[in-house]
């Protein structure tokens, strides 16, 4: 696991700048945490190993100078970089006195940002580099997840960084890609794993009950509230609250959630009493929240609080090199469950699985294997797979085509399968790398 790249906390009330910084920094392979206010930045600093703080100066409520002063007292070893729109002389002096390593004036180019970040990070000599620790003896297993594609490694890399802190995480991806598994992996591999993990599917709770279910209520709050009741927030105390299908949360819940993330405070339905919350929130969605924002069904300010760290789980068709390992895992699981033994799959059958496009992602693959295990006599053969998998081969254009074109397409397909790894592709094609290189030209 590659943990060499640094964790950078960016603080700005201007969403556009925040996103721009995030985009640039992520393209340079840094890992970023976002905060829309100083208060939220402080929550992240408290339990996250941050290597560089980048902050705006002018912000409502508490400004960046105060953040810098606080960080200098409590985190003197973290270098600080200021991004400001107003490089006035007095302002500059104050920034330097406040202990910032350097400052960058808006607008800035990506190159200017890159240089400023590298320079600032160099200041930090006292800091020991994170030593990658073995997560598991087998590098392609993480918690309950298996995979070996680059895409999979990216996901586990982020999990590794966030598991021990309480920064809010949002997991996005198509249905069946493994979002819930990612949330569980964060919780159960981290240092709060002994605390509760509470999973709530917002879509499964009727809108009018969501608020009471999540935040609890007091006796008499509404008809039928005969006693004080805890909600999921209270139940998750000290641990993780997983809010699945967050896009379906009612607006009342969204308002309360915003306050929980911003101020770490909640109130029960029917009560004025403020309760402090100390939990990590992981949200998940397969909906396009930006679209919901445009339709006014999702609060934009909440969106930015939820996306402190984002994990996008790519669809299976974009990481086909994981299919063999996943298949093996499900064969073991269902083989033991239904046949009391390990089953094998024939190379031809596996090839069909690898060729298919998997609109239903990992859940669909799991179902196909479960069915095949039940159908098979010995090992899984082509005949044990459902027909729709076998006929996906594209016969639509019946015209006859030059071998060169077909060869090109096929080489490309193999390369996709190996995530662009030419050595592996050459192995599969049984040609040497040099020949492959020539073909690619
Ligand atoms: N990397 C993985 N390794 C092994 N099993 C996986 C992996 N990812 C997902 N699965 C399995 O695939 C199934 C679907 O995963 P999960 O329920 O986490 O998906 P999801 O993204 O939450 O789906 P939905 O959007 O429908 O809620 C589960 O049975 C899960 O155990
Ligand atoms: Mg799910």
Characterize the main sheet. 5 strands, parallel
Q: Termini distance?
A: 33 Å
Let me know the CATH homologous superfamily of the largest domain.
Answer: P-loop containing nucleotide triphosphate hydrolases
Number of helices, counting only DSSP H or I runs of 4 residues or more: 19
Percent of residues in helices: 40-55%
- Could you say what the CATH topology of the largest domain is called? Rossmann fold
Number of strands: 14
Numbering strands along the chain, what is their spatial order in the largest sheet? Answer: 2-1-3-4-5
The CATH architecture of the largest domain comes to 3-Layer(aba) Sandwich
Strand share of the residues?
A: 5-15%
How much is the average pLDDT? 88
Modified residues (4-aspartylphosphate): 56
Domain Sigma-54 factor interaction: 145-374
Protein name: DNA-binding transcriptional response regulator, NtrC family, contains REC, AAA-type ATPase, and a Fis-type DNA-binding domains
Keywords: ATP-binding, DNA-binding, Nucleotide-binding, Phosphoprotein, Transcription, Transcription regulation
How is this structure best described in words?
With 441 residues, the chain is of the alpha/beta class. The protein has four domains: 7-122, 3-Layer(aba) Sandwich (Rossmann fold); 141-314, P-loop containing nucleotide triphosphate hydrolases (Rossmann fold, 3-Layer(aba) Sandwich); 317-390, Helicase, Ruva Protein, domain 3, CATH 1.10.8.60; 403-440, Orthogonal Bundle (Arc Repressor Mutant, subunit A), CATH 1.10.10. It is built from 19 helices and 14 strands. The protein has a five-stranded parallel beta sheet, sandwiched between helices. A five-stranded parallel beta sheet has the order 9-10-13-8-14. A two-stranded antiparallel ribbon has the order 6-7. A hairpin with an 8-residue loop joins strand 11 (265-266) and strand 12 (275-276). The radius of gyration is 25 Å and the shape is globular. It starts with 6 loop residues before the first strand and ends with a helix. Residues 129-137 have low confidence and may be disordered. Bound molecules: adenosine-5'-triphosphate and magnesium ion.
